[in-house]
UniProtKB/TrEMBL annotation:
Residues 85-102, 109-142 have a biased composition (Basic and acidic residues). Residues 1-20 form the signal peptide. GO terms for molecular function: unfolded protein binding. Keywords: Signal. This is Protein refolding chaperone Spy/CpxP family. InterPro entries: Cpx_auxiliary_protein. Gene3D superfamilies: 1.20.120.1490. PANTHER family: PERIPLASMIC CHAPERONE SPY. GO terms for cellular component: outer membrane-bounded periplasmic space. Residues 85-142 are annotated as: Disordered.
């Protein structure tokens, strides 16, 4: 039961984490997860050794990093109103997903889910604060 709940929470958090991570708000978290799943499925059939698996994983990470950078470049060109509308729509989508998950859980699971969600939000806020501090420090250093 715990493994199922953990897997469910991780699956629910992936789109949120993708949006909260580097390239924040690029809206490509779900698609990236889907592409990763396809690559993982394909790699299982190749009987890779550890070194090959590591190299492919590193290449995938680099590709996703570049993908986020490209998407972010285009998002940076959007007017503020469009960015705000996109963020609002993404948040509504996350809220809808959270509600669907909560509706499937028992009362005890909902309580734990809420606790985990609160912890995730706190970590996200701390990360945002850290990134702001880091950017400020880098500006002072220049």
């Amino acid at each position: 039961m715990r493994k199922t709940l953990t897997a469910l929470l991780l699956a629910a958090a992936l789109p949120t984490l993708a949006i909260a991570g580097p390239g924040m708000g690029d809206g490509y978290g779900h698609g990236a997860h889907h592409m990763k799943g396809d690559a993982t499925h394909m790699m299982r059939g190749l009987d890779l050794d550890r070194e090959q698996h590591r190299k492919i994983r590193d290449a995938q990470r680099e590709q996703m990093k570049e993908h986020r950078a490209i998407v972010q470049r285009y998002l940076d060109k959007l007017p503020a109103a469009d960015k705000a509308a996109m963020e609002k729509e993404l948040q509504a989508n996350r809220d809808k997903q959270q509600k669907a998950i909560r509706d499937t859980l028992t009362a005890e699971q909902q309580k734990r889910f809420d606790e985990l969600s609160k912890e995730r939000e706190q970590r996200r806020a701390e990360r945002t604060e850290f990134e702001a501090w880091k950017a400020e420090r880098e500006q002072k250093a220049q």
